[in-house]
Write a structure and sequence with these properties.
The complex is a heterodimer of chains A (453) and B (169). With 453 residues, chain A is an alpha+beta fold. In chain A, 15% of the residues lie in helices and 35% in strands. In chain A, strand 10 and strand 11 form a beta hairpin. The termini of chain B are far apart. The chains are: A alpha+beta (453), B mainly alpha (169).
């Protein structure tokens, strides 16, 4: 890992011996040598997580400092280059391995983060494709159980069992900025015969609420939004689209095909601090004309894809805003287009076209051939070249799927594959395989807040 | 804050280093870069055309001149349009600014100068650089560098090691 060498030690920090230029101060003294004390803190806050964990062994006061909430929250995560978290699709039923790699640096050193025993790799999904303040949420279909992990500190914990089971469920993860707590929100769509057709349960990570799932404090889904919530939850469950966390709320997109008219609500939102539901109106390209046409004319215009399991739109969080990706790869004019529509202000429903990814040639053909394309997020906001990170999934044959993560460089308009994995699905309930990739930012966010029982 | 005079002269802020050397920057630049200047100018009701002088008499001329250079550059970059290329150029400039000829002593003097006038941009840059330099070191090296006593018991050290067994401690 790190090797100290004599040369390094000699040039490390100034002492009167190697700085004949004439500093009056004596060699390294106990007040920090030439580095002002208040600046030691500023330097520590900018260290990568691995270094901080190592420096706990420097002295007692540093070990204590690094465990304080103040330090953890002030620690500046490098948001410009998130890393990639990846759950390995082993079919072994005894353990799952989780790896990380860096999309912006193209190194092939996938680091094995941890292995979850008694969890099956092929049924494990990553529910946080975008970075969420340093933590990620995993879900094991077969157990069933949720896990929260911090990919930087490699800590992982299993959540207590949830209450409601149903055919269609989805779960999202986000950070409540007001209470300064992470929350997992699970939505389940019950049958029509049940009194409460949409159930919502919330788990607050970090105690304070008891270590259990509970109903949301702001009440359940309002009556007027029930049918939209049904569509959104079914959409999320069938197409493996976990709720997206943006601007303090979790968002789900409805399936426009489930309505006969242009739906009033396109996105159902759940605010993590208020724990209430609201909605966002439809984007301009969900035109009323789409609904008045018959199925055959829809095929002619090519507006809506006519293949089961593919989806017209999915949500993604980019630049701290909610965005909708419009999948136009089945465009009859031959191009391979993905449109990104942004919603700058969640109170109005003013969606505006932000980017248009227009791919040509072989790259376009490859992308068009894959079944599922999901934009996960973007890197390089503040400095390096901006790239979008895209996950794709292609059905090869029988039960084999090819899953890839690519980066799309906005400047050069080129698509580059970073990671490619072949997966064998044990159950073919849905054609859309679950997500194994997620982005994360380095953070010291604690995972186990209650002592293990 | 007093309004700028309508004459053609721009108001300046002067930093005075050790040895009496003067380094000037326009007031507008100082306001953007330095919290101390902003606060000081908030208090002053009227000072005519007088230049504000800041004494940094125990800091060498070279770090002070680099500080002024940094502030001027950052203020100019802030006014131009943000773009991917501009951000890239800024990073390259920062690399050259804290290039190979900047040794440890100069780095710390630069930090002292930046702290004196609370130039947050430069403080951030230098701290990031120092963090980058020490991030790979062992705990013993850190103790040597900063002169910290090792007060951990063997049990405590073992506990830290097992908590994070994937790191060499």
């Amino acid at each position: 890992m790190h090797r100290s060498s004599k040369r390094k030690a000699a040039t490390a920090m100034p002492s009167s011996a190697c700085n004949p230029g004439g500093r009056k101060k004596a060699a390294v003294s106990s007040d920090g040598g030439s580095l002002p004390d208040e600046m030691v803190m500023e330097v520590l806050l900018r260290l990568p997580v691995k270094s901080i964990l190592r420096f706990r062994a420097v002295c007692r006061s540093w070990a204590a400092l690094f465990s304080t909430d103040v330090f953890r929250s002030l620690h500046i995560a490098d948001t410009a280059s998130p890393k990639l978290l990846f759950v390995s699709p082993t079919t072994a039923t005894s353990s799952t391995k989780v790896y990380s790699c860096s999309p912006s640096e193209r190194k092939d050193d996938d680091a094995l983060l941890f292995a979850l025993d008694s969890a099956c790799g092929s049924s494990m999904q990553l529910l946080t494709p975008a970075p969420c303040h340093g933590l990620s949420l995993l879900y094991d279909d077969t157990a069933p159980a949720y896990y929260i992990c911090n990919a930087a500190t490699r800590a992982v914990t299993r959540l207590p069992t949830f209450l409601h089971r149903a055919t269609y469920t989805c779960a999202g993860f986000g950070f409540d900025a007001r209470a300064r707590k992470y929350k997992v929100v699970r939505l389940s769509k019950g049958t029509r015969h049940e009194v409460e057709s949409v159930r919502c349960e919330v788990y607050t990570h970090g105690g304070g609420d008891g270590d259990c799932w509970r109903p949301p404090t702001g009440g359940g889904v309002p009556l007027g939004l029930r049918r939209f919530a049904h569509s959104a939850i079914a959409n999320a469950a069938l197409n493996n689209l976990p709720p997206v966390f943006a601007n303090g709320s979790l968002h789900l997109v409805v399936q426009p095909n489930s309505f006969f008219r242009r739906p009033r609500a396109a996105v159902i939102s759940f605010s993590l601090s208020e724990e209430t539901f609201s909605f966002v109106g439809p984007p301009p390209f969900w035109t009323p004309e789409m609904y008045s046409s018959t199925a055959s004319s829809l095929r002619e215009t090519g507006e809506r894809p006519f293949m089961p399991g593919t989806l017209g739109e999915h949500l993604v969080q980019m630049d701290n805003q909610l965005c909708m990706v419009r999948d136009l790869r089945y465009n009859p004019s031959g191009g391979c287009i993905l449109e990104i529509w942004k919603l700058p202000d969640s109170t109005s429903s003013a969606w505006s076209l932000n980017h248009r990814i227009n791919l040509f040639g072989r790259v376009a053909r490859d992308l068009c051939r894959t079944q599922v394309v999901r934009v996960m997020g973007s890197t390089g906001n503040a400095g390096s070249r901006k790239k979008m990170i895209i996950a794709t999934s292609e059905h090869i044959i029988f039960d084999k799927f090819q899953k890839k993560v690519c980066t799309y460089d906005l400047g050069s308009q080129s698509l580059e594959t970073i990671l490619s994995v072949t997966e064998t699905r044990t159950s073919l309930q849905t054609m859309t395989p679950s997500s194994r990739f997620g982005l994360f930012e380095e953070s010291l966010a604690p995972v186990s807040t209650t002592p293990p029982s | 804050m007093a309004a700028a005079p309508s004459g053609s002269r721009t108001r300046m802020v002067t930093l005075i280093s050790k040895g009496g050397r003067n380094f000037k920057m326009p007031e507008a630049v100082a306001l953007v870069s330095s919290r101390s200047c902003r606060e000081a100018l908030d208090y002053i009701e009227y000072r005519g055309n007088n230049t504000m002088m800041i004494k940094l008499l125990d800091i060498d001329p070279k770090p002070v001149s680099m500080l002024v250079n940094f502030c001027n550059h950052m203020a100019a970059a802030a006014t131009s349009a943000a773009s991917d290329d501009a951000a890239q150029r800024m990073r390259e400039w920062e690399e050259r600014f804290l290039g190979d000829d900047v040794d440890q002593a100069l780095l710390y003097d630069l930090l002292s100068a930046a702290i004196s006038i609370q130039a947050d941009g430069l403080i951030d840059l230098v701290c990031k650089r120092v963090a980058h330099m020490i991030k790979g070191k062992t705990p013993q090296e850190i103790r040597t560098i900063l002169g910290i006593q090792d007060d951990l018991t063997p049990d405590q050290r073992d506990e830290i090691r097992t908590d994070n067994s994937w790191i060499d401690i």
